[in-house]
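As noted in the main text, all predictions were made from sequence alone. Below is one such record, for DUF2987 domain-containing protein.
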Amino acid sequence: MALAATVAGAPVHAQDSDWLSYRDAYRGMVAFEKYGKPKQFLQQHYQVGARDGSPLPVDFRLALSGKTMQLNLPLDAVGRAVFPLLKAAYDENAVLTVNRKLGAYVFRPRISIVVRPDGVYEGAELRAACEQALDFQRTVNAAGYRDKHCVGVRFTFAKKPDADVRWKGGAPLPAVPGPAFPDEAGNAYSVVTVRFDAATDKGQVVSQNAPLAVSPVFE
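Prediction:
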């Protein structure tokens, strides 16, 4: 099996097999668990994405298989799963499997911003969340993120009528077709980008509906 190097946020490209090494995925995921700097606004998942940017099939399945275990890893609407960090699975050299041809998909650790249940986000906290994400990415991939800067956050929705995001007291921000995360391909979702400016830290962003994901935007 040929795989690209695994670092947090970087894709793993499956080519010639029907499984992925749990150990390889574990090494990429455990970096966030061990990360000692502030990360209270962040969460990490293991994400599966179609190379062409299309949504995953509704019957797509990701599973962890080992000598003594068989676990289904449910995926959310943007292909993220809670990844179990299991010593037994590591020791058994367990594998990750999907019920599709692996070559059509990309697998990666995915950092995103925790969604607030009340839909109200302090501008200063959104900026801090983006900076936390950038600091982490620089820790695991310094060359790739050294020259990047936080410019905003992206709210992702399944369809345009749900994408009502605005600065408190303002009009809805533009919603456009796009991928769930800025580094992906495709236009399967409706996304709203909240860009930072001088007034960000004094404002509030209100999302009328719960987004599928909130992600940092680096440029």
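Confidence is low (pLDDT under 50) at residues 1-16. The chain has two domains: 12-112, 117-218. These features were considered when defining construct boundaries for the mutagenesis experiments described in Section 2.9.
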